Amino acid sequence: MRPSSSTAYYQFKPYNVGRWAIWSAFALVLLVAPLVFTSSLSQTMLSQMGIAIIVCLSYNMLLGQGGMLSFGHAVYSGMGSFLAIHTLNLVTKGLPLPVSLVPIVGGLSGMLVAVVLGWVTTKKAATPFAMITLGVGELVWAMALMFPEFFGGEGGITGNRVTGPRPLGISFGPQIQLYYLIAFYTFVCTALMFAFTRTPLGRMLNAVRDNPERVEFVGYDTQKVRYISFVIAAFFAGISGGLAALNFEIVTSEVVSGTRSGAYLLFTFLGGATFFFGPIIGAIVLVLANVLLSELTKAWLLYLGLVFLFMVMYAPGGIASLIMMNLRVAAFGRLKELWVSYLALAFTALVVLLGAAAMIEMVYHIQLNAALGPELTFLGATLNSRGVNSWFGAAFVMLTGLGLFEVARRHFVRQWGEIQEFIEKEMKRRESL
Amino acid sequence: QKGETVRIAFMDPLSGPFANVGQNQLKSWQFAAEHFSGAKNPAGVKFEVVGFDNKGSPQESLNTLKAAIDQGFRYITQGNGSGAGLALEDAVAKYNERNPGKEVIYLNYAAVDPSMTNEKCDYWHFRLDADTTMKMEALTSFMKDQPKVKKVYIIGQNYSHGQQVAKFFKEDIARKRPDVKIVGEDLHPIGQVKDFSPYVAKIKQSGADTIVTGNWGQDLTLLVKALNDSGLKIPMYTYYAGVTGTPTALAAGGDSEVYVVAYGHSNHSGEIGQMAAEFKKKFNDDYYTFATYNGINLLGAAMAKAKSTNPVQVARAMEGLSFKSFAGDATMRASDHQLQQSMFVTKWQKADKKYPYSVENTGYTFVPIKQMDPYVSSTPTSCQMKRPSGG
Amino acid sequence: MSDPTYALELKDLRKSFGKTEIIRGASLAVKAGERVAVIGPNGAGKSTLFNLISGRFAPTSGQVLLNGQRIDGKKPFEINRMGLSRSFQITNIFPKLSVFENLRCGVLWSLGYRYTFLKFLADLDDANERAEQLMEMIKLHKKRDVLAVNLTYAEQRALEIGITIAGGANVILLDEPTAGMSKSETRRFIELIKEVTVGKTLLTVEHDMGVVFGLADRIAVVVYGEVIAFDTPEAVRANQRVQEAYLGSHVADAQVGAA
Amino acid sequence: MEFFTISLLNGISYGLLLFMLSSGLTLIFSMMGVLNFAHASFYMLGAYFAYSTTRLVGYWPALFIAPLLVAVLGAAFERYCLRRVHKFGHVPELLITFGLSFIILEMAQLIWGTSSVDYRVPPELSGPLFTLYGTQFPMYRGFMMLVAILMLIAIWLLLTRTRIGLVIQAALTHPETVEALGHNVPRVFMLVFGGGAALAGLAGVIGGNAFVTEPGMAATVGSVIFVVVVVGGMGSLTGAFVASLLIGVIQTFAVGIDYSLMGALGTVGVNVTPETFGFALWKLKISQVAPILPYLFLVLVLIFRPKGLLGTREG
Amino acid sequence: MLKIENLHAFYGKSHVLHGVHFEVGQGEIVALLGRNGSGRSTTAKAIMGMVACTGSIEWNDRQTLGLKAYEIAHLGIGYVPENRDIFPKLTVHQNLMLGQKGKAAAKKARWSFADMYQMFPRLQERQHTEAGVLSGGEQQMLTLCRTLMGDPDLIIIDEPTEGLAPKIVELVGDYLKKLKERGVSVLLIEQKLTIAMAISDRALVMGHGSIVFQGTPDTLRADAYTRKEWLEV
Ligand SMILES: Nc1ncnc2c1ncn2[C@@H]1O[C@H](COP(=O)(O)OP(=O)(O)OP(=O)(O)O)[C@@H](O)[C@H]1O
Ligand SMILES: Nc1ncnc2c1ncn2[C@@H]1O[C@H](COP(=O)(O)OP(=O)(O)OP(=O)(O)O)[C@@H](O)[C@H]1O
Ligand SMILES: CC(C)C[C@H](N)C(=O)O
Ligand SMILES: [Mg+2]
Ligand SMILES: [Mg+2]
């Protein structure tokens, strides 16, 4: 299960210890997270994060590792969900299958669907690929609404996960039990997908991404490389779909929708498609944004849009790349110099955000809730959306923040540039040793 | 119980494409809650409605349910979309079964899939709207007296709601007016049609004199526009011509003969009429979700009867309870928890002295042309209600 | 049916793009182990010929035989699996993979690992050893973990050759391997090519006469899609037609002299 | 015959409408290679701007002002956002337009509210243009067709009579070289993006009152316009035009066809009953899938002719 | 005409040119020689405003440092990049069209399409072919012609004979001389000493980012030290 053990021999020594530590830490986080966050909402959220991690990682097999931009990945996770819930209902009717294996059924179904649809999809790469997935996605989604017999119509298909035999008294009734099932799958699937990147097929997939033409001249059929990888990715997507079916105990047509596929794309990218662990971050952010952000503010879609805009512009490698850049700085022992700058940046950015958010919230208030009086509470303070004071205050806060931020930013950019230069020199020096 | 606060979690889309409907309905709930709080309800409780954004998604609804339960809500309400409704009905059932003593009641104010009170019915679910079958029952009862109706064309969205409308119309009309011919039936993918003129051409070719549709939102407005453009002026019987946004589009299309079946209309007088006027003044928006009126009153009556605000007792009290609705008496039928209430058929026309209410400030209004007592639209149920033991 | 003593044989090969016929009945027979330079004016069809042989294009008519077997019309990967490999005129490597990974990608298929995802790369001792060996051969072992994009031009060209020979093919086609290199680099590079292709059949396209005459056992001259001469270097240089069509009057001599 | 004529007319006018919606996208996609997911948002903005300007100065000025405003926004977006990510490749470009579409949607809702606005066809253009077999053909639809054709001509002139198209296509591979040849590449990019946005805006001005001006209007045309561009062939304006008409006509006629696979099987003696596996699929009538035929078309075209109908390249 | 003083150029943080000085006079062919990586291409890019640099570049007494590439091109400097940067999706003819600087300018230009096609008949044959499928040599010809279409007064050519058949190399040499006759100055960056020496009026040798030799081809031929140290290994 653990790729680290088998790769041990060839890898650079100190790295390996690190890898053990990372995987153990990952397992530990999965284990203790629900003990730290105990409310029922946070437990469902943790479960959903696990599910999202699997599906985003599987999406990244296509996007990050294979250079395949798919607009229809939800088809595979979604079909996994549907077949899993039908299977669950069969279990209720007496099919002798442990509930804990239902996600595997989801995986196999996702895979099967990919075997059929993937054949046409992966014939092409690049933009034609993207457009085929868009078309297939739209078709499947439209079909899902048309066939209530299989997809359950508006209400979808419901199931009950508390069914079948209960080994060790585990019924999966309480969320926490299900969480640990999901955590287990998440760990195993993550490990497997990581292992995949270390296999011949995984490597050839990278090669196909970078230079498909040349791949043909070293003996590989690029279409087959894409196809097999696509099917494997669909398998993991299906597992995630199966877990989602168990988690929600209901599957509706939204699981195959284009919106869902779009979310996988956006958040995988936000997390960082160029690093293996990027999508994990993306998945966590996805759940947080969907569940929490929308509770905090009505303007959440606006905030999300802005975050994307800025991330794509300033950190096109996603959150993961930001982390890696800082790790590099840390590796050269210069991170501590940056602390002050980071603090200053964070603080001033927060001020800007505060001012901007106050204004955004006031605008939303005027638009949506003006009738409830001009007053609204924002982070505990009371703002008057019709009052000059509030607007002036918010604008003042924002502009001051902006000014200070710019000062901090300039300082930081200079410092950062210096450090990068140092690192480059240092690397050259080490190379020439 | 007097002076207690009953908190209701409202979960419907508050962002995204359906936010307009959701926002309006949240305000309606809050407005009704405020209106009937304290002495104005028999139990003397204070109602408070808090909005949760489920984005119209069944899965997100489950998250908002969890969030609401975490925050101590014992009453939830939802209506916009049967998908989310069915998800909530099922989730509430499972939650209540797995968490005895912490039961939650789900008041459904607009999700009209009949299965919610039939094969999938549940003890904790109470529907305040009339389901598709009831509306169709009322609509066909009206249509059977229209001699003009001879050849009907059914057009609808190809998903469960549209399919049900078609199915029940055919069944009901065959029963009531066997001479009426169905000259065509079209189900189109929901939200995908940009141009309805091919459908209009088909309708025209079929020689139909009447259209029946369960369409809503853009699928309805575009249909109406295409009909107007082609000059095909035949009456249309609908469910959702009054939903936010549609009247504006209807008005832009000029005069057209449109009927709507619903459990209310926009020209009520009396208390509800005053409330609508007040609502309009306050929010500059229409008060059309009258189920909020009934919902709060039903709760108040049940809490008075149960002398408690505990959902277990309140649920029991609501079964079979009769209360004063805005249009006569209404009864929460015990066998399936479907509210039995009066139904109206209204017609789209210019607002006048008698019916002055201008919907969405269009200068048009929905004029009630027929009111039907609850028994008319009552439909049988296949529900086998499982009641909690000891209840 | 055909003579398997020839490693590579072209029989009346033709290729048209649209209406223009670019290759007009080229025939050539290369013996196993021979080093052949292909020369000819710009646009004569040398690269196209390579593309036809390696499966990038399918010929309009005619045959290509590899060790006596027909390969025309086959896909590039099928031809590669049969033992023919090529490099490109414009550098064509895997830019985001390290030098080592680039070479390992070239090695995998020939060692039978195919599309497997049930084995770890790190455990494939033979593939890793072979990749390390190749790295030594093309003298890039110091750059083992450097991404290919970050190599200098000459290093990239070397890597290009490395990938080409990685699969252990017997017949190697190189398209202008020394393009863009300086004299001194070219000289070193030719040595490298000689070294790594010992015992193999080699076809090279070149415009640098120094390279051509230094490397080739025989020279094929392509003009207007036909092989107009296929002979020893001396004979070719003396050939009147070749001089007219390709070499020009004095430059050729001067360059050969300079090499 | 009657039904056929009317359907043909409907099909062609719908096709032209599709072309109107997608022409700006074609322009941007074919020239800059950017899959602009915010195109439909620009379309929506056009409609809303037109709604507001119509109230201030009337419809005819709005017909010019609204697209201009959209163009300015589009150009500004290109200048300050898109340009920065251009060097990162196509996926970031696409994602940033994705982000933009969120922002535009929210902004539009903030400014104009969440329900539809009352944006009407001007009186001089309402009413029927002519009546055919008792069916009216609305004047506004005729106007729409006219504008679509004008758009076609305008873009065609832009592409053939100026070198802008060449400059951009060349700049996709070697921007620096194009600059060194004396072309101000960034400005050209900005103009083209602004122009594409303006076309979307114009479509919005005209589509907004023909249909419904509401926040959801972007989403409803969102993906079908990609179908047009891809089916027609990337980089081909005529392709997009032909594809629009083809899709329009096919879809319109498909609505009139009530055959199903079940029926087809019935004629060859295979009886499909509700018990047959996959009954729902067999009984599906062609008319029921008409609106999603474009997607089927898209998939088939990409499989069998990945260059698109008239395209010359695959990517 | 072109006067460069104390030019320093940078790729990001790496300092590539260290104070380059030289001049190119009207109608002069100047060869810029040096080993791989000595900074010749960078010099060309610096003149075109395509790399960050400091110092002074004067063209007809006008400071061009800090101008954008297209502005510099409009001042009459043409640049033929190395690596055959043809535009692969455009036809040969369209590639040439892009070399022109507008309709009015094209009318006054020294060169027309016909001149180009006469110079390389091969291009005329392939006129309507996508440039991406041209043979390597044909692409090389195309890049040269494309720049000429812009009617520059100074043309900077980076390794124009790369990948050309020996016979064509001669032809290019002849053509460069013709340019000179029409008053165009040439800055020729070359690898092939023979041709460079044969046609140039002056030779510059570059090493490690600065000019290490200036003189006539004959003095360079005589200067064994420079040749050995800076041009060969
Ligand atoms: N796909 C294609 N479509 C049309 N013409 C093509 C195609 N590929 C090559 N050609 C043409 O075929 C001719 C031969 O090209 P090829 O690349 O084989 O020449 P070459 O002999 O390698 O020349 P060079 O020495 O200049 O590289 C050229 O004129 C080229 O334009
Ligand atoms: N884009 C770049 N980024 C960083 N360094 C570069 C870049 N381009 C060139 N260099 C470096 O600048 C130096 C000079 O390169 P330049 O291309 O000017 O050399 P050259 O003399 O033209 O050589 P060649 O014969 O290879 O064309 C080299 O050391 C090279 O590695
Ligand atoms: C938005 C509403 C009109 C939806 C409707 N209640 C339905 O069940 O589909
Ligand atoms: Mg060639
Ligand atoms: Mg150079």
TrEMBL record, chain A:
It comes from the Bacteria. Keywords: Cell membrane, Membrane, Transmembrane, Transmembrane helix. Pfam families: BPD_transp_2. The keyword Cell membrane applies. It is a multi-pass membrane protein. InterPro entries: ABC_transp_permease (IPR001851), LivM-like (IPR043428). It is found in: Cell membrane. The chain crosses the membrane at residues 20-37, 49-68, 99-120, 126-147, 178-196, 227-251, 263-288, 300-327, 339-368. PANTHER family: ABC TRANSPORTER ATP-BINDING PROTEIN, HIGH-AFFINITY BRANCHED-CHAIN AMINO ACID TRANSPORT SYSTEM PERMEASE. This is Branched-chain amino acid ABC transporter permease. It comes from Caenimonas terrae. The lineage of its organism: Bacteria, Pseudomonadati, Pseudomonadota, Betaproteobacteria, Burkholderiales.
Automatic annotation (TrEMBL), chain C:
Gene3D superfamilies: P-loop containing nucleotide triphosphate hydrolases (3.40.50.300). Residues 8-249 form the ABC transporter domain. It holds the Pfam family ABC_tran. SMART domains: AAA. CDD domains: ABC_Mj1267_LivG_branched. Keywords: ATP-binding, Cell membrane, Membrane, Nucleotide-binding, Transport. This is ABC transporter ATP-binding protein. It comes from Caenimonas terrae. One of its GO terms (molecular function) is ATP binding. SUPFAM superfamilies: P-loop containing nucleoside triphosphate hydrolases.
UniProtKB/TrEMBL annotation, chain D:
It is found in: Cell membrane. It is a multi-pass membrane protein. The chain crosses the membrane at residues 12-38, 58-82, 94-112, 139-159, 188-212, 224-247, 259-280, 286-304. Its main location: membrane. Keywords: Amino-acid transport, Cell membrane, Membrane, Transmembrane, Transmembrane helix, Transport. The keyword Transmembrane helix applies. It holds the Pfam family BPD_transp_2. CDD domains: TM_PBP1_LivH_like. InterPro entries: ABC_transp_permease, BCAA_transport_permease. PANTHER family: ABC TRANSPORTER ATP-BINDING PROTEIN, BRANCHED-CHAIN AMINO ACID TRANSPORT SYSTEM PERMEASE PROTEIN LIVH. Belongs to the binding-protein-dependent transport system permease family. LivHM subfamily. This is Branched-chain amino acid ABC transporter permease. It comes from Caenimonas terrae.
TrEMBL record, chain E:
SMART domains: AAA. InterPro entries: AAA+_ATPase (IPR003593), ABC_transporter-like_ATP-bd (IPR003439), ABC_transporter-like_CS (IPR017871), BCAA_Transport_ATP-bd_LivF (IPR052156), P-loop_NTPase (IPR027417). CDD domains: ABC_TM1139_LivF_branched. Pfam families: ABC_tran. It comes from Caenimonas terrae. PANTHER family: ABC TRANSPORTER ATP-BINDING PROTEIN (PTHR43820:SF2), HIGH-AFFINITY BRANCHED-CHAIN AMINO ACID TRANSPORT ATP-BINDING PROTEIN LIVF (PTHR43820). Signal peptide: none annotated. Belongs to the ABC transporter superfamily. Keywords: Amino-acid transport, ATP-binding, Cell membrane, Membrane, Nucleotide-binding, Transport. This is ABC transporter ATP-binding protein. SUPFAM superfamilies: P-loop containing nucleoside triphosphate hydrolases. One of its GO terms (molecular function) is ATP binding. Residues 2-233 form the ABC transporter domain. PROSITE patterns: ABC_TRANSPORTER_1 (PS00211), ABC_TRANSPORTER_2 (PS50893).
